[in-house]
Amino acid sequence: MKVDQLKLKKEMTVSELIEQFDKSGVLGAGRVARASNLLVDMINDEDMDIFMSLGGPLVPGGMRNIVADLIREKRIKVLMTSGANVTHDLLEAFGGRHYRDLGTNDEELNDAGIGRIADVYTQGEDFELFESEITKIFEIISEKLDNDEDKGIISIQRLLKEVGLLIDDDNSILRQAALNDVSIFAPGLIDSMFGLQLWMFTQDHTLVVDAVGDMHYLSDLVFESEKIGAVMLGGGLPKHYTLASNLLKGGIDAGLQITMDRPETGSLSGAPLEEAKSWSKAKHGSNLVTVIGDVTIIFPLIVADALNRID
Questions:
Q1: Tell me, what CATH number does 305's domain have?
Q2: What is the domain extent for residue 293?
Q3: What are 18-38's pLDDT values in tens digits?
Q4: Where in the sequence numbering do the catalytic residues fall?
Q5: Residue 4 included in any domain
Q6: Selection from 308, 300, 311 nearest residue 66 by Cα
Q7: What whole-number distance in Å separates Cα of residue 90 and Cα of residue 193?
Q8: Domain presence at residue 208
């Protein structure tokens, strides 16, 4: 089969562009098209549940509405994420924002109370608002737990669901997950501003987070699913938690990952998905696609294409 040269035209749709990518070979454009085709197949497969992972600053990077909409439309069964993305989702839910074009002199930014994430910025007063609001929510949850049989003990998954039910922002990932029965797991939650505030709250309140408690519920979700497709955006702990959760069942049935990391160092973030087969984290014969590139560019493209093509 020959490689077709890309043909562009005025008013070209995203799906028309992806179709051109699909004919262009197996370099970057071809891999993007394969990832888009696989996402469509995952969504159209009624027997397949989608586990999604979010690694890296994807909420500050503009992915919040896309993920929330996928949850709202019931495209996702389970979400694995970092504590940072939880924090930044809540920061916006509480009225804070992420900013751009504020400069790159980091010492001046620090003096002005501004934090920088590459080309995205946060304001100190927004985090002050976050700290105030999340503490109020912790108080409500803590009082609720004091009155039930758990006596102050809660899993991370349940904690995030309780938080989602107490915020008023329909664009929030946590809010949409809580309303649509999508479980969020964040095994590294403590390594974030959310975790810091949680630790500070527990200094004078009885609230114990049981990370191991998540494994019981997560394993049930894995075994209840006839087939599992994984969409891994970035790497790190969320990617590994997604794959490892399927280990006891022989691995995922299909998976796509978008990452900027490289495989040479042996890190999981840059490992090709085929490597997961050696660990029984992906099944023999599973359909796997790895795309090397920026999630904030590639994922919106393949989702926009998929929305035009799903049944």
A1: 3.40.910.10
A2: 14-309
A3: 999 998 877 889 999 999 999
A4: 281
A5: no
A6: 300
A7: 11
A8: yes
